[in-house]
Amino acid sequence: MNYQQTIDYLFAQLPMYSRIGAAAYKEDLHNSIALCNALDNPQTKFKSVHIAGTNGKGSTSHMMAAMLQQAGYKTGLYTSPHLKDFRERIKINGEMIEEDFVVDFVARTRQISQQIEPSFFELTMAMAFDYFAQQKVDIAIIETGLGGRLDSTNIITPILSIITNIGYDHMNILGDTLEKIGAEKAGIIKPNIPVVIGEWIPETKAIFDNKAAQCNAPIYFAQDKYNVGDITVTAQTLQCTVTDITNDVKENFTLDLNGIYQSKNLCTVLCAEGILTTLGFTIADAAEKYALANTKLITGLHGRWDVIGQNPMLVLDVAHNQDGIKQVLEQIKWIGKNDTSVKRTIHFIMGMVKDKEVSKVLSLLPSNARYYFTNAHIPRALPAAELQAKASTAGLTGNCFDDVNDAIHSAKNAAGKDDVIIVCGSVFLVGEVK
């Protein structure tokens, strides 16, 4: 098979969570273990940082990778899902995995794949580990796919674990309470391996503390170590001051990931950076500052309050659950702070998937915005007409569009130059924007 045939095979033949949902989720690590055993356990041949969390784990992973790369380390990065190109999931120093390696790997693992029938995620995870091992990376940042305890990536023994936060998402699999979800995420905490918790809430702090104590794992809470202030947001950057509470030292930062919520991820990254330095990694201040100011450039990350047009402002954001949408609404408030004299309308281009808490997300949205309902072209997508009907019960009205790009065209025609158009609700919807 050539590369395109190989990709078609992966998408068509292997159960893929992003397309079909929970039916693709495997509730054990047997396939992951079997695949890696067949590959001589590549995950044991490089150092890694393991990152879980409801929101922010993708941004945190990319900031960590950018910083380590800029510090001179050959850095692997495994994330999911991808927006445009399958190879976005597996990168070394910002460069996507080689097409030839993808073709060769699928051919090499064809026999065992036929025997154990792995999911799409299980096979691509093993591909990433094999690639990182063969390319002899100094360290790899590994983002969980879903949850933690039973996530396919949880066969690694990292040098550091990170849990960004806990919120309501994937409740049909991880549990219907914050405590249950937190317990699943806490499953990445390993014996004697330090763990950073980005944000804790009363429902989860004891869970993390207890799990860390059981594992004799040093635990660090980033929100208790740092305060963020003096935040300034532009269309392309976020500037802020971070105070290390323990020694009252202040530092100024500029991020090219300009969502307000990135200030929380920044604290998580700084806490993790401090631990890595105690483990022998050297990250100069200049490397740290440059990497955080150029994460998108270095790693190719997109879709996090991604401003891709002006007059009107056009924003792509992969927010798809309650906490993510709350963050988008908070960002909108900050736009208003810059010029209170301007009257602007917010245009939401929304598309979601069937297994999210759709009604709860819609209940958060303002009734005075304009709405354009659409859907990604995957089986798991909620049809635009169904989303429109659900929105109507929440007092939100708008037209339906079969393609997100048609919705964007309509919104641009309707919007004034000071208005804001936001595409959100699904990673897969953002991925279809041309």
Describe this structure in words.
This protein has 434 residues and is an alpha/beta fold. It folds into 2 domains: 3-299, UDP-N-acetylmuramoyl-L-alanine:D-glutamate ligase, CATH 3.40.1190.10; 306-431, Mur ligase, C-terminal domain (Protein-Tyrosine Phosphatase, Chain A). 41% of the residues lie in helices and 18% in strands. The protein has 19 helices and 17 strands. It has helices at 3-13, 17-20, 30-38, 57-70, 99-108, 110-116, 120-134, 171-174, 178-185, 202-215, 222-225, 262-278, 285-293, 295-299, 322-338, 358-363, 384-393, 404-414, 427-431; strands at 47-52, 75-78, 90-92, 95-96, 139-143, 160-163, 195-197, 219-221, 226-233, 238-244, 249-255, 306-309, 313-316, 346-350, 370-373, 398-400, 420-424. The strands form 3 sheets. The chain has an 8-stranded mixed β-sheet, sandwiched between helices. Strand 3 and strand 4 (95-96) form a beta hairpin. Helix 3 packs parallel to helix 7 and helix 9 (178-185) runs parallel beside helix 10 (202-215). The radius of gyration is 21 Å and the shape is globular. The two termini are 28 Å apart. The relative contact order is 0.12. The mean pLDDT is 93.
